[in-house]
């Protein structure tokens, strides 16, 4: 199934790639604009074991070198890639030569919190992107400089985020925390100061409830593959810009969903697939993509989509997935076509 285009701001956010089967990744050619020049000769100012492309001498690539410690980073480097190595720790003076470093990409190493010394990241007064995906962290790293706009800590073993570790990150727009071991209580107060946050991924954790205190500026919010069984009434009230919400692969039942909780006028996509719903929750007429596959739904109330049907009042649903439920074509009311008049795809099988 083809989803509608993501908002334009995502073009500016590295590290985000969304598709229906929930694969989340990123492609170096598009996300890291300097990667295509790696085959060129190195600049004279570069760690000898790494590569600094002549056309982009401020980028240094130290990927796939079986490094056990960070190389010496010479002055002038602003974009540092040290992926797919065996680094376990970072010394406190590791970046003393490059306090103006802007991107630090450390994915696929063996980094541990206890071996990241002192306030090594807070010294980087120009740092915008910090990626430590696929490592051995057990808690979020910090403190971090307030220049940060993209923090990625997915695929670790993080069990807690201290209330003050993200404090002051007023420019942070992207936060990846998926595939960790976070529980609801471990997130208390963690996001309170992230006033600019647009993208938050908490999928593949151990949440049983939705966390409190999420920033209301969010555009994209993902809770897939947790153990959430209910949503507090008016939980999403105040989220005036929320467009993409995913709650698939949880334990939601009809009793756990208040009647009007998803009536969010800004919402474009809602995913409630792979839960235990028997009826279709009420949604706003502006919703375009609605995924309900693999639930226990056995009836199709038109009021879930349209309060009133008229020339200018109808549902904007384009894609509706109901396959894997207890519905057949004969269960769909004839009036459905007046309500879902712009639907391009209604899947029942």
From TrEMBL:
The UniProt record lists the keyword Glycoprotein: yes
Major localization listed first in the record, in broad terms: secreted
Superkingdom in the source lineage: Eukaryota
Signal peptide: 1-18
Record has Repeat as a keyword: yes
Pfam families named in the record: LRR_1, LRR_8, LRRNT
GO MF assignments: collagen binding
Subcellular location: Secreted, Extracellular space, Extracellular matrix
Coiled coil: none
The entry's keywords: Disulfide bond, Extracellular matrix, Glycoprotein, Leucine-rich repeat, Proteoglycan, Pyrrolidone carboxylic acid, Repeat, Secreted, Signal, Sulfation
Annotated ranges, domain LRRNT: 45-79
GO CC aspect terms: extracellular space; fibrillar collagen trimer
Similarity comment text for this entry: Belongs to the small leucine-rich proteoglycan (SLRP) family. SLRP class II subfamily.
Classification via PANTHER family: AGAP008170-PA, LUMICAN
Entry protein name: Lumican
Organism in which the protein naturally occurs: Pelodiscus sinensis
Underlying gene: LUM
């Amino acid at each position: 199934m083809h989803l509608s285009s993501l908002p334009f701001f995502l073009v500016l956010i590295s590290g985000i790639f969304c598709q229906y089967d929930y694969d989340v990744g990123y492609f170096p050619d598009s996300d890291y604009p300097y990667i295509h020049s790696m085959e060129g000769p190195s600049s004279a100012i570069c760690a000898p074991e790494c590569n600094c492309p002549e056309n982009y001498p401020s980028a240094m690539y130290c990927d796939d070198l079986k490094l056990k410690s960070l190389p010496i980073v010479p002055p002038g480097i602003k974009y540092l890639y040290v992926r797919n190595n065996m680094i376990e720790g970072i010394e406190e003076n590791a970046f003393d030569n490059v306090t103006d470093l802007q991107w630090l990409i450390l994915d696929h190493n063996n980094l541990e919190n206890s071996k990241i010394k002192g306030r090594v990241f807070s010294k980087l007064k120009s740092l915008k992107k910090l990626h430590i995906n696929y490592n051995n962290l057990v808690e979020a790293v910090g403190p971090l400089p307030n220049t940060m706009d993209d923090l990625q800590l997915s695929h670790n073993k993080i069990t807690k985020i201290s209330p003050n570790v993200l404090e002051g990150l007023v420019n942070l727009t992207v936060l990846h925390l998926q595939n960790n071991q976070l529980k609801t209580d471990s997130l208390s107060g963690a996001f309170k100061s992230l006033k600019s946050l647009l993208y938050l991924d908490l999928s593949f954790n151990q949440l049983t409830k939705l966390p409190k205190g999420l920033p209301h500026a969010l555009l994209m919010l993902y809770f897939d593959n947790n153990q959430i069984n209910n949503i507090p009434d008016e939980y999403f009230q105040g989220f005036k810009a929320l467009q993409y919400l995913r709650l698939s692969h949880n334990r939601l039942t009809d009793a756990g969903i208040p009647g009007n909780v998803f009536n969010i006028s800004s919402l474009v996509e809602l995913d409630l697939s792979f839960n235990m719903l028997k009826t279709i929750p009420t949604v706003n007429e502006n919703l375009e993509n609605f995924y309900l596959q693999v639930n226990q739904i056995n009836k199709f109330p038109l009021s879930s989509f349209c309060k009133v049907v008229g020339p200018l009042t109808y549902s904007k649903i384009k894609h509706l997935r109901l396959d894997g439920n207890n519905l057949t074509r004969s269960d769909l009311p004839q009036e459905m076509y007046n309500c879902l008049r712009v639907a391009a795809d209604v899947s029942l099988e």
